[in-house]
Structures are given as C-alpha cells and as structure tokens.
C-alpha cells in the first residue's frame, strides 16, 4: 500500500501524533509509554514556550488509513543559532519497521525545511530534537533493552538503520550512564566535604522546590553558563524552565534538588527526578479520566527504585579545572548520602556529549557505566 504523508493540522491529528509511539511500540522490550498528557505539553505550541523560538510543522505517515509513522520539522528564528549545529532540525521520528515509511517521513521534513532555510549559510538538517536540545534529543542506538527512564527518548533497534539508509550520518553521540547503588555506598564514610582543604569552602544546600521562582535566576545562570559552549546549545529560557518546573515540583521530593557552593558562590546544581515509568507501566499512556487519582496516590506512596539526574550544570570556568572535578565528585557523594534515606538502586546520569571528557571522567571515576547511547544525525539539504 502507498504511504501518505499528511501535515498535522487540528486537534485530531495532533492527538494522533502524540499517541503514535505507544501504538506502534507497545509490547517492545525497553519501551514504556509516557502519559499522553505529558506529550501534549511537550508538543503543543500553546503549552511549550520552546515553540516561540521556532517555526515548526508535524507530519503523520498513513497507510491504508492507519497511522504508521510521524516526524516534525522546525527551523529557529533568525538570531537563535544552536552552537555548531543547524537551526534546521527534525524531531519525534517514530515509525513501524518499514524503510519506505521512514524515507517518506524524512523527505517530507527535508522538503519543508528546504523551503524555509534558503538564508542559512550551511544547508544542513540535524536531529532528532524532540522538540529541543533541552528536552529529548537523539535517537537510541545502544541500550534498547535498558531500563526505560523518564524523559529519555526510546526508539527501536531497526530505526537507525532506516535513517542511515536515507542518507543521514552521525553528527554527535550522547552518553547516558547507569550508576548502580551498591551496599557499600549506603555506609557512612568520609567525604570530600569533610576534608580540611574543602570543609570551609564547599557547601551543599537543598534546592527549595516550593519557591522555584526565587531559585530560578541561580539555576538559569549556572545552566546556561555551563552549557554555552556545548554542541547544539540553545539558551534555556526562563519560560521553558518554569513550564517544566511547575509540573515536576509535584512529583520531585524536596531532597532531590541541591546547589553546590564554593566560597559562598553557587557553582553547580542538580535535580534528580524519580523514574515515573515505574508507576505508569500499566496505564498505557492514558491519564484521563480514571488514572489521575492512581498517579497521585502512587507518587505519594511508591518507593522508587530508580531515578534520573534530570538537570545538572557546573559553571564553565571550573569545568576543565581540578576544582570542577572535586565539585562533580562532591555532587555524586551527596547523591549517595541522600540515597541512604530512600530505596533508590539505580540513578541514570544523562546525557553527556561523547567528547566532554571533563564531565565524563569524574562520572566514570564514580563507578558509573555507560547504559545508553543516543545519536544526533545530520544530512545536507537539497538545494
């Protein structure tokens, strides 16, 4: 049957776009369906401030009247230029195991971008960004059967091969680490903060998640400074941060966010999010009308076994210095210390650019091991 590509227009096709992955990937090992409501907030232009910075268009692939794939294309407005990456991007590429479907979807995104990218000095498309570098970037190329983690994209093993057959090549790999909490980690032991050279200089305080607006200036300053030289970086706006934080404050325990101060100045921060997939696994992405009370109850009563380091930053001036490594190790020690009061067995550190040795080294020294690899692809746009 031929593949029909239709633009996403109107509520019906938007809802179909959001629920497609759980329809075509259901039952595959490693996949856990996110809540439809969360996907609405990610991709709806009305709800996600990211879309104030881009022009975008979603597409659905249909065969014999059935949705079999999706993709969206976006181009950043003039003045917003990702570091070393193209403003012309694709994202949310999901499809059945059919190269013809993937080829039709990528061709649709490329054609849409080609019409709107004539002004770009380099006519290149990068992706997937779903919908941005600050959300769920990359396509899974290793770790298909690893533990599903909240806000980490999952795609089946066949998809990278289909994308590469369409002329796409690797641009960057994003590394995620699994830190398995060992029994020895739960024992009380000396820490970096107790050493004479650091005990009066390094301090760690809990992030006040109930008053995030008052903490936002510190968090945004650190995050945007820390990431400003990273490949693909686009400034994280206050509106974007608050749109995420307003929802997460209901599911993130108070002890899960903290700031590291050096000589009285905030230099690093991090927020660990409980892995909500643990409590969503039997809901098939549906929140309304009956699952909302169950989610609230489970968030309050569930003892999470896994979590993800959702946001992390250390000021750029310290990243390639010994003190930067000390701060990162102190941060990991604090995760261990706070973990003694919880049942957490697995923390995912991710993601980190493959060439970011300054960040990868202390993570690997902590005993964490590579768990997943996500790939950003690139391709020349046709003239």
Brief rundown of the structure:
The protein is α+β, with helices and mostly antiparallel strands and 383 residues long.
Question: What does this entry look like structurally?
Answer:
- The chain has 383 residues and is an alpha+beta fold.
- It folds into two domains: 4-173 and 376-380, Gcn5-related N-acetyltransferase (GNAT) (Aminopeptidase); 180-374, Aminopeptidase (3-Layer(aba) Sandwich).
- It contains eleven helices and 15 strands.
- The longest helix has 18 residues, at 99-116.
- The model has no long low-confidence stretch (mean pLDDT 89).
Question: What distinguishing features does this structure have?
Answer:
alpha+beta; Aminopeptidase; four-stranded antiparallel sheet; 383 residues; nine-stranded mixed sheet
Oligomerization state: single chain
Percent strand:
25-35%
CATH top level class name of the largest domain:
Alpha Beta
- State the helicity in percent bands: 25-40%
Tell me, briefly, the overall form.
globular
- Main β-sheet description: 9 strands, mixed
Can you write the helix and strand succession as a string? EHHEEEHEEEEHEEHHEEHHEHHEHE
Going by CATH, what is the homologous superfamily of the largest domain? Gcn5-related N-acetyltransferase (GNAT)
CATH architecture of the largest domain: 3-Layer(aba) Sandwich
Radius of gyration: 21 Å
> Treating each run of at least 4 consecutive H or I residues as one helix, how many helices?
11
Secondary-structure-based class equals alpha+beta
Question: What number of structural domains do the residues give?
Answer: 2
Question: Which spans of ≥5 residues are poorly predicted at pLDDT below 50?
Answer: none
């Amino acid at each position: 049957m031929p593949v029909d590509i239709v633009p996403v227009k109107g509520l019906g096709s938007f809802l179909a776009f959001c629920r497609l992955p759980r329809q075509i990937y259901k039952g595959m090992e490693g996949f856990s369906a996110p809540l439809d409501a969360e996907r609405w907030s990610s991709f709806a232009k009305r709800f996600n401030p990211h879309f104030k910075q881009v022009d975008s268009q979603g597409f659905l692939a249909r065969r014999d009247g059935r949705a079999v794939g999706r993709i969206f294309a976006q181009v950043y407005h003039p003045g917003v230029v990702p570091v070393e990456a193209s403003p012309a991007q694709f994202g949310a590429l999901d499809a059945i195991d059919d190269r013809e479907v993937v080829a039709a979807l990528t061709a649709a995104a490329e054609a849409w971008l080609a019409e709107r990218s004539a002004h770009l000095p380099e006519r290149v498309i990068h992706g997937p960004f779903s919908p941005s570098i600050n959300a769920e970037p990359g396509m899974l190329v290793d770790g298909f059967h690893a533990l599903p983690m909240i806000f980490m994209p999952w795609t089946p093993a066949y998809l990278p091969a289909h994308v590469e057959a369409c002329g796409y090549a690797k641009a960057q790999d994003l590394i995620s680490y699994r830190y398995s909490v060992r029994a020895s980690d739960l024992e009380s032991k000396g820490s970096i903060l107790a050493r004479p050279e650091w005990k009066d200089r390094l301090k760690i305080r809990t992030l006040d998640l109930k008053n995030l607006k008052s903490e936002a200036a510190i968090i945004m300053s650190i995050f945007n400074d820390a990431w400003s030289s990273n490949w693909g970086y686009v400034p994280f706006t206050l509106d974007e941060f608050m749109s995420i934080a307003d929802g997460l404050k209901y599911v993130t325990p108070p002890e899960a966010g903290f700031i590291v101060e050096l000589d009285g100045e905030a230099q690093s921060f991090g927020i660990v999010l409980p892995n909500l997939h643990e409590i969503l696994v039997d809901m098939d992405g549906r929140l309304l009308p009956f699952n909302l009370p169950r989610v609230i109850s489970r968030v309050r009563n569930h003892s999470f076994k896994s979590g993800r380091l959702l946001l992390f930053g250390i000021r750029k001036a310290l990243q390639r210095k010994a003190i930067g490594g000390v701060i990162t190790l102190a941060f990991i020690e604090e995760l261990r210390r706070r973990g003694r009061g919880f049942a957490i067995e697995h923390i995912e550190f991710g993601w980190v650019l493959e060439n970011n040795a300054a960040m990868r080294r202390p993570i690997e020294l902590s005993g964490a091991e590579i768990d997943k690899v996500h790939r950003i692809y690139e391709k020349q746009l046709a003239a």
